Amino acid sequence: MAGISRDDVANLARLARIDMAPAELDHLASELGVILNAVARVQEVAGQDVPPTSHPLPLQNVYRKDEVIQSLTPEAALSAAPASEGQRFKVPKILGEEA
Amino acid sequence: MSLKYEDVIEKYEPVLGLEVHVELGTASKMFCGCNTIFGAEPNTQTCPVCLGLPGALPVVNEKAIEYTIMIGLALNCSIAPFSRFARKNYFYPDMPKNFQTSQYDEPICVNGFLDVEIDTDEGIKKFRVEIERVHMEEDTGKSLHMGGATGRIHGADYSLLDYNRAGIPLVEIVTKIVPGTGKYAPEVARAYVAELRDILRSLNVSDVKMEQGSLRCDANVSLRLIGSDVLGTRSETKNVNSLRSVERAVRGEMIRHAELLNKGERVVQETRHFQEDTGLTRSGRSKEQAEDYRYFPEPDLVPIVPDAIWIETLRAALPEKPSTHRKRLQEAWAVPDKEMASMINADVLEIVEETVNLGADPTKARGWWLGEIARIANEKEVAATDLPITPKDVAEIVALVATGALTDKLARQVIEAVIAGEGRPSEVIEKRGIKVVSDDGALMVAIEKAISAQPDVAEKVRGGNVPAAGALIGAVMKETKGQADAAKVRELLLKHLGQ
Ligand SMILES: [Zn+2]
User: How many domains are contained in chain A?
Assistant: First the structure.
């Protein structure tokens, strides 16, 4: 397991929109490295013959029928929103990105 | 001074890539039971799952998987024996979960193709567009950008989100790069999207309305010097919401790239937004910095391992291919290639077929949709199929002309009135008092009047110059405001003048 570099942390911080001071980057690079190495030891348990899995249970093809159920009322849907306007969720302006 | 298209293709070879997103027509969303009605009041079709509330668990809509497999089969793809969903992580509020459930390296369908035909000066040309993958994902919510002048992100003060659309099943169909289209790249792009739309419609898996966004196309374009193996930098144009726009966007981007390259500048790798009004694109998000969506397998959903019997049952039930269907219609209607191509190009084939199915003669039905109705559509800059006139109206008009109750000229008036919202054909005829004047007495009055106004012409006709009668017939038609049956007028006039 390779370590995690200061640049990796800086990139992750950028992707996660977390503003980090240079000292924090140094600190986290070494700290995350230790954590990753600890977690990596789990992989030692699985041999070459164990395929990586995304699910702990041996399940597949779990489906629901295409049936409409009652949705939330707009009031309930918006009740946890920090702000709303015109029955819509209100969010701060989005900088420099367009989906 | 913008570069001419001819100059672009003389020097450069375009390379196309097309990504089409289609919203499936399921009753409920992809991972929850919320309704999927277009145009519902904001945030009336949401629940803890599609709002990404803590603890909510998604469950896959079986119908959506079935539809996706049908699409893959219709596009000659292999259906993956094992596929999985993945989280595509990004920070944009159109997904309340902060990720979109999508597929990454394990899509449901791979390696297909779609053959398209275009009508060119050199005859009908065929192109094979190879399909890289067909994968499942969910649609995003809709943002309104408030404040600022343009309704765009730049200059906006804040945004408002409606999550009705978030979680509607979305299928993404991605082509491999399409080389070798040369100067026909814009037409091939359009023909591909049109053919794909027709296939999706025949499968009945989506309402494929480009103007409502249930079918959306992103067009990737790059240029390389003719003879070179080096691919140019591509741009990705989004928001292309009509077939005509697909063609315009590709052509426009080819010209824009060529202008940059000719000046020795470089093409920036970015998304661009197509603008319907100008036909140009404007710069969007830069893709210079590799995107990092940190995809990982979705732990809340289990793998899809479609049963071989299910796949074969779906394959056996696939409808007739639109291309086969077209050939059948062409034969049944005895339509020449060029005429068939005009109907396809004007996108009226289906509506002509509906009109014929309602009893209209194929040639007449085609004539009205490609003629008067297309002319009005052009004037209004909309698609003929979007005008408020139905196949039933046209079939009714065709029938009235056939029985002699309307002349072609009167029929045109009725079509205009129907489109203007004056009601159905029978109502228009009633309200406007439109009727063919076939009463001999009334026609004779008009004929006498025409003869006395042009005695010299009448003399020529009497002397055996039958073609000269045209001027008199015209005068009678004008006098009766087009309501006379021209054949009847001709018969009475010639008889009256001893011919
Ligand atoms: Zn929901």
Answer: 1
Residue B363 sits in the same domain as residue B295: no
Binary contact (A55, B158; C-beta < 8 A):
no
Of the partner residues B61, B64, B92, the one whose CB lies closest to the CB of residue A99 = B92
Are A99 and B304 an interchain contact pair (Cβ–Cβ within 8 Å)?
Answer: no
**What pLDDT, in 10s, does the model give residues B183-232?**
999 999 999 999 999 999 999 999 999 988 999 999 999 999 998 888 89
Q: Does B92 contact A94 at a Cβ distance shorter than 8 Å?
A: yes
Q: Which residues of A touch B27 (CB under 8 A)?
A: 66-68
Using the predicted structure, report yes or no on whether residue B70 has a pLDDT greater than 60: yes
What's the domain count of chain B? 3
Are B91 and B229 within one domain? yes
Query: Could you report the per-residue pLDDT of B11-49, keeping only the tens digit for each?
Result: 999 999 999 999 999 999 999 999 999 999 999 999 999
Its ipTM equals: 0.84
In this structure, are B360 and B302 located in the same domain? no
Residues B154 and B21 in one domain: yes
- Domain boundaries, position B86: 5-315
| Mutation for testing the A interface, residue in B62, B236, B302 having most A CBs under 10 Å | B302
Report the helix count and the strand count for chain A, using DSSP H and E: 4, 3
Mean pLDDT of chain A: 86
CB contact under 8 A, B93 and A74: no
B134 shares its domain with B32: yes
